[in-house]
């Protein structure tokens, strides 16, 4: 973050681990969705998921079938995995903690356009955010998979929905890579991250970090 927070015209938020305390819900859901293949393959997917936070479930389940199970990607099997995952995760998203002081940050950055850019399913995200009274905060839109973050950021920049000075708030290495590729400033939020030894990683890459949105709201 190279500027004062109030100097940004656009704020882009990841969802899981930033706005919602939902990383562990998603991690468990990957195991639940694949446990009928056996414990070891399911755990291998969990390990891959944790190491690749922010990547869409579509790509992770394709990886599971192709690389872990070493079978052809069949649409019916892939859709079954996606359905199992969605069923496992939906209730958790409706009940998990919302980042404290999100409304305060909105007031502090009232002139900025807010977007969600997530690896989560776009339709699912919009449904959850509407049900939980969060939808109206993100006036720039709520976007997710099957499009990946690189594609979403490029598209929204091209359409000028992401405009001027822009900041990405994320909790994963992929968030940082996507923000850098799109030319956005980046800040890492650590409280709910699943990045192992994150402190060493942010120090190595000279990334500014805060614990959570509440810390940003009181800057």
Automatic annotation (TrEMBL):
> Could you say which EC number(s) this protein's record lists?
3.1.3.18
Q: Which organism is it from?
A: Thiomicrorhabdus xiamenensis
GO terms (molecular function) for this protein are: phosphoglycolate phosphatase activity
Protein name listed in UniProt: phosphoglycolate phosphatase
Concerning Pfam families, the annotation shows: Hydrolase (PF00702)
> CDD domains under this entry?
HAD_like
Q: Which reaction does it catalyse?
A: 2-phosphoglycolate + H2O = glycolate + phosphate
The EC class name is hydrolase
Which GO BP terms, alphabetically? DNA repair
Which keywords does this chain's UniProt record carry? Hydrolase
InterPro entries noted in UniProt: HAD-like_hydrolase_sf, HAD-like_sf, HAD_sf, PGP-like_dom2
The UniProt entry, under SUPFAM superfamilies, shows: HAD-like
Family stated for the protein in its record: Belongs to the HAD-like hydrolase superfamily. CbbY/CbbZ/Gph/YieH family.
Q: In which pathway does it act?
A: Organic acid metabolism; glycolate biosynthesis; glycolate from 2-phosphoglycolate: step 1/1
- What domain of life does the UniProt record list for this protein's source? Bacteria
């Amino acid at each position: 973050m190279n500027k004062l927070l109030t100097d940004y015209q656009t704020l882009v938020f990841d969802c899981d681990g930033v706005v919602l305390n939902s990383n562990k819900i998603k991690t468990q859901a990957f195991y639940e969705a694949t446990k009928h293949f056996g414990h070891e393959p399911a755990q291998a997917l969990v390990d891959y998921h944790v190491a690749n936070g922010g990547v869409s479930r579509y790509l992770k389940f394709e990886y599971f079938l192709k690389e872990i199970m070493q079978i052809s990607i069949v649409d019916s099997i892939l859709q079954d995995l996606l359905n199992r995952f969605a069923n496992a995760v939906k209730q958790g998203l409706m009940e998990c903690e919302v980042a404290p002081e999100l409304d305060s940050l909105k007031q502090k950055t009232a002139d900025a356009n807010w977007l969600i850019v997530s690896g989560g399913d776009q339709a699912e995200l919009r449904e959850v955010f509407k049900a939980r009274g969060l939808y109206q905060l993100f006036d720039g839109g709520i976007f997710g998979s099957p499009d990946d973050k690189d594609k979403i950021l490029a598209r929204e920049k091209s359409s000028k929905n992401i405009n001027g000075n822009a900041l990405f708030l994320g909790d994963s290495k992929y968030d940082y890579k996507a923000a850098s590729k799109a030319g956005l400033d980046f800040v890492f939020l650590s409280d709910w991250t699943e990045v192992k030894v994150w402190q060493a990683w942010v120090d190595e890459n000279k990334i500014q970090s805060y614990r959570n949105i509440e810390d940003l709201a009181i800057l």
